[in-house]
Amino acid sequence: MSSVLWSCPECKKVMQRKNLYPHLRVVHFYTREQIEGMKSEVSRQAAQEGAPPYEEVICPLCEERFVSHKRLAAHCEEEHADEGADGEPQNYAVFTVSFANKQEFDRWLDEQQQESGTTFYTRSSSKLKGLMELRCNRAGKYVKRTEDRATKSKRDVSHCSCFLSVKMEEDGSVHAEGCLGHAGHKIDRALLRLTPSQQQFLKGLLEEFTPDYIIKRLRRDYPANVSRLHYVTKGDLWSIVNRFELRPGFRHKEDMASLKARKDEGNPDDGIRLLELPEESTGRGFRMIIFTRNRRGISIDDTHNATRYDLKLATVMVMNERDAGVPAAFLLSGSMTAQDVEKLFLEIREVVPEFDPIQVVTDEAPCFYNGFRAVFPNSRAKLHYCRWHVEKTWQRNANKLVEKISVMQANVNALVNTDTEEAMELLTAINELVSEASRIGLTAIKGIAARPELTHVGGKPKLTRVQLYTRQQSRVTRSALSHGRPDSDSED
Q1: What radius of gyration do the chain's Cα atoms show?
Q2: What superkingdom does the record give (predicted)?
Q3: Is the pLDDT of residue 267 over 90?
């Protein structure tokens, strides 16, 4: 039959091929699956007769046209064996394989895709006839499906020599014919899809490790030119999490609705003891208390910016049987006051009525200890401030004092070089303050001193003479100032 005219398999009416499929659908009530099967059969017959199939295949290297991917592969083996994949030699041999069942075929296909750097997509299929045509995902026409965001296609060429024609028999066996050599594009494993076995492997890792650790491990264990796993991103891992439902606490896409659903379930193993939803969109009024397994001892502190919301996270740390600190309870709140902390300890008292720690360790913020004492007023616990927090606060305040002294010294220098009555009055006042500070022993402002020979009364300072004041170049470092001792008292 001519490549232009075809006969209907039902009524033998001759018509153009473009009219054959509407005819089968309208006149003979063919289903969509039957139409697809007929398209595959027409293409197969056209290839056997040497006529162009339903879609012409064009060589991406020399633009020669062929009737099938099989003939394109044979052409590439003869003409482009050493230059096919962007200069990388390829094996364009067409092979035929058979398998006893689809499971064996799927395992083989998974291995071949990883080894050859290939991802197949289904070009056409027919369940009725058991036919399936697989093509390289780097070939084809890109159709943009959204205008809301910028997108980029992985497809570089219109046709690639890599293909697979699959036939599934009624007895379950599978026969495949194809070629795994690529033409016209570089083999980039970063653009491949994750195979089913790779997805299962990542699923197992996500059940035990954090995404950052997984990515670091994959970069180390899998070379870039060998496996797609080398290029795994957090986006890939997030897709695996959603696909395999690895979010045990997830109930709803809205965070607050998900938390409320978990609280309403009343699962004692969930750990949520108290949930108060926010009163405002800023998160104000939100409180959530979470318990882990009971342990002994207590240390409490809060953390800012723990989530994408403007919330604070307070963690109660306890000592386990190995004297190691482990988290036992959490308070996630829009504010961190003594009243908020009190609610946390109310839940602790309900779970452990006999709770009576010996020591309470916290930073200098009073809300934690005040909240604890409000619930356990008769506790024997002694308060210990964290030395690290106290030292940081001391250094921060000392740094502020140093900055103020530097500003005052700069102002004095400016006044000294100003020949006005107002400047003289200010300098006299500063001199009195320095004298008083020296009398009571304030070394922090010892860096400003008067020149005794120029403190006479009644004389107006002249700029041509020696300045009235000079700045004592004290080598007082900030660290020394924070400990209250200067390194040197020498004058320049």
Answers
A1: 40
A2: Eukaryota
A3: no
